């Protein structure tokens, strides 16, 4: 939303501000991108090194969750304004899903 | 320029409704289809009550009784109550927020046709070997053993109509988030719009578990998997959990719009703003939230263990608190108001004690220890009929009277309406009050007959007599509808005289673009505020301009019909018939072919030009 390039000759568009914003944005994206690659490497390393299954599975899932959050917030712009409703529904959905998994794993299978 | 004033042949009208993407016409389709299934479900209820009127009755056989009982529950919940609620949401919600249509008109039509074909498919089972017979909950241990194709029809039919409902819910959410008129903040939205919003969110989160459960059931029944088959390493309890993770929010999906309709009625006919509006919003959201935390109270006797039972029992009782807030707010809305006892208001007033009775028995069955006594007896049957009939059906009947003029431009007869009300109220309590006692005396639910001299005879006869009262009430209502339609006395914008929200500021029925100019909303009960300032209508928020409208389309019918065909193929595959796979493929080809057609063909809609809008100013079409 905030990412529209300055178009036409609208004098009210503060190009300097936009430029600064975009630069920051770019910095965040590069940082999170390198972090994501780093996390992926760790995941491969964890599997390759041959730790116990009880460690690897939850650990990789944790890394995956972090990656999803990076993806949503930095690449799909959820960190910007105007995404309150989508985040509300995303988190509600996650909550419902988590409760389901919790219930299944506590009172059905174990 | 009213579209209704033009003379049209039957064929043209039919084509108009088959291709419409207008939310008001889709509302009428939902009303007709839902009303039809309501009559079918009612007929099934009458068969149940006739069979149980006297001991050792042989009006129907045991097997057929199971089918009728299953189809009564399934039809009433999925094919009658939900679409009727959707009818009012479609008819009223866009008008209440000052929108010209829902966000995705095409998807809206698709949602209706999916529901319709799913419902028709489910009922085809009657003619093709036997209806489902494992109860509306279709517990897997029963359902997997059912010898006929009934359960297959159940799973596939609900899958199709469930997809339609999910689409409808998402559509309403996007509409409410994005398409509110200027000035219509969240906390200025009418209560019915709020309940539509929360209901749609519940649909969004509750239907996926059902979809998963139904797919597992379809695979188990038709394609040889063993998700629920304990002898093959599956677990039959998984179905129960998936079903109730959906099923409990589902009952709130039904009751919240009912609360919304009653909130509108209490405010309109008490001539007061709704008492405690913000606490009403809070309570609605809280009920929606808690609705996801309580599903296991349907399964106390499954053997979850005392800890799980205790948690779910306490969570269930907590829902009594926001519901109580609502009850008190409605009472305080009436307090000191200038009450007129119109038909909708009578339903609303009768709803409070009826629903509270259902709530009190709800607390009783929520106590896990006591539930071991109540479980699977008529006490539970009495409880959920008190909340669903006393809450949802009363609201649907009240809403029919309240919104009939807005949907059709003519008022239902008040005298006949009140006759319907009294017959229905008396019949309802006669039928279900005694069933509390039957349950406590030990009559199990879902039995096709009972023996004499067990003390059940008189009570069951009373219950059956009550059911006939309700049947007569519905017939009177049908007569009312037919008489009103024939007389067709046109009414103006605000036929009840005390309309408070935006829908009453535009003609009845509204022009197909709803608002010529989007209205400026200055507070809660926007139209009432303008009235109190001595104005005749809403202040426009924009200059008169071209209005962009979507084109009609026949594609939703074709997409839905494709799935209808494919479902027959799936049943055939389950039966190892040769036609199974070809029919399934043809069905999917129809569906995906028409979806492809829709995707590649550009349809930009059309504009109503400013000049055309200016011509009919004198006909009262102003925003």
TrEMBL record, chain A:
Main localization category: membrane
Keyword tags: Cell membrane, Membrane, Oxidoreductase, Transmembrane, Transmembrane helix
N-terminal signal peptide: none
Subcellular localization, as worded in the UniProt entry: Cell membrane
Keyword match Membrane: yes
Xref: InterPro entries: Cyt_c_oxidase_su4_bacillaceae, Cyt_c_oxidase_su4_prok
The UniProt record lists the keyword RNA-binding: no
Membrane topology: Multi-pass membrane protein
Entry EC no(s): 1.9.3.1
Record's GO cellular component terms: plasma membrane
EC top class named in words: oxidoreductase
Positions of transmembrane segments: 30-49, 55-76, 88-109
One GO molecular-function entry: oxidoreductase activity
NCBIfam families reported for this sequence: CoxD_Bacillus
Protein name: Cytochrome c oxidase subunit 4B
Originating species: Pseudoneobacillus rhizosphaerae
Gene behind this protein: caaD
TrEMBL record, chain B:
Record field: catalytic activity: 4 Fe(II)-[cytochrome c] + O2 + 8 H(+)(in) = 4 Fe(III)-[cytochrome c] + 2 H2O + 4 H(+)(out)
Gene Ontology terms, MF aspect: cytochrome-c oxidase activity; heme binding; metal ion binding; oxidoreductase activity
Entry EC number(s): 7.1.1.9
Annotated PROSITE patterns: COX1, COX1_CUB
Domain Cytochrome oxidase subunit I profile: residue ranges: 9-522
Pathway: Energy metabolism; oxidative phosphorylation
GO biological process terms held by the UniProt record: aerobic respiration; electron transport coupled proton transport; respiratory electron transport chain
Membrane topology category: Multi-pass membrane protein
CDD domains given in the database record: Ubiquinol_Oxidase_I
Protein name: Cytochrome c oxidase subunit 1
Phylogenetic classification of the source organism: Bacteria, Bacillati, Bacillota, Bacilli, Bacillales
